[in-house]
Write a structure and sequence with these properties.
Layout: H1 10-20, H2 23-28, H3 38-51, H4 57-72, H5 82-94, H6 96-103, H7 109-118, H8 129-145, H9 153-162, H10 172-191, H11 196-208
Helix pairs in contact: 1-3, 1-4, 3-5, 4-5, 4-11, 5-6, 5-11, 7-8, 8-9, 8-10, 9-10
């Protein structure tokens, strides 16, 4: 007789890993008031993103281990944007080909945004506030990272977010989402600096040396 094991509760396991790798201690030691929401943002992003994958518990553990190692290399005064780091680690383990294309600037912004949306075919995650925040962070940082290429770095953001937010022909729901995203991106621009993704890619590369 064959027995089917129940699917593991990913959320419960993520909470276990958060405690095991002592993420709370890391975030609690970042006393700058500008970072006061980083812990909650990381926890919410990780729980939601890893619940969308078909990762084994072992792979989820590896992802959390990689995130932990990267965090240990980040100075206490560095704007780290845990949502972006978590997204990059997930993509690295879930779609390494796309991760490498982004790292070596061989893809378009739309490829990364489409990948984010593809994680949840039901669109339930895409409608959550955390996904809107993540979309804003990813769209802006990826656009900035790819800006050295010939195409104007503002085109993607303007066409997909800034223009629709003021277009009367766009649905009201779409306009509201775009306005929220552009507001977040405007604030992100103040702190991220020009090389946020490059710094994170470098730290992820360094972390690989310490993986078992």
């Amino acid at each position: 007789m064959n027995y089917l094991l129940p699917n593991p509760n990913v959320g419960t396991y993520c909470n276990f890993l958060i405690e095991r790798f002592q993420f709370e201690s890391f975030f609690d030691n970042r006393t700058n008031q500008n970072f006061r929401y980083d812990k909650d943002k990381f926890f919410e992003t990780a729980l939601n993103l890893f619940s969308l994958t078909n990762f084994s518990l072992r792979t989820i553990e590896q992802c959390f281990s990689q995130i932990c190692i990267v965090l240990k290399t980040i100075p206490s005064n560095f704007y780290m944007y845990p949502e972006i780091l978590t997204f990059l680690i997930l993509m690295k383990n879930h779609n390494q080909d796309l991760y490498l294309k982004l790292k070596y600037k061989q893809c378009e912004e739309k490829n990364i945004i489409n990948y984010l949306f593809s994680l949840d075919p039901t669109s339930k995650f895409n409608e959550k506030d955390i996904c809107i925040t993540l979309e804003a962070y990813v769209a802006y940082s990826v656009n900035q990272y790819l800006s050295e290429r010939i195409r104007n770095k503002v085109d993607f953001l303007k066409i997909n977010y800034y223009d629709p937010s003021n277009d009367e022909n766009v649905s009201e729901d779409k306009k509201i989402r775009c306005k929220r995203i552009t507001h977040i991106m405007n604030n992100l621009e103040l702190h991220s600096g020009p090389n946020l993704l490059e710094k994170l890619f470098n730290k992820i590369d360094i972390s690989q040396r310490f993986e078992q």
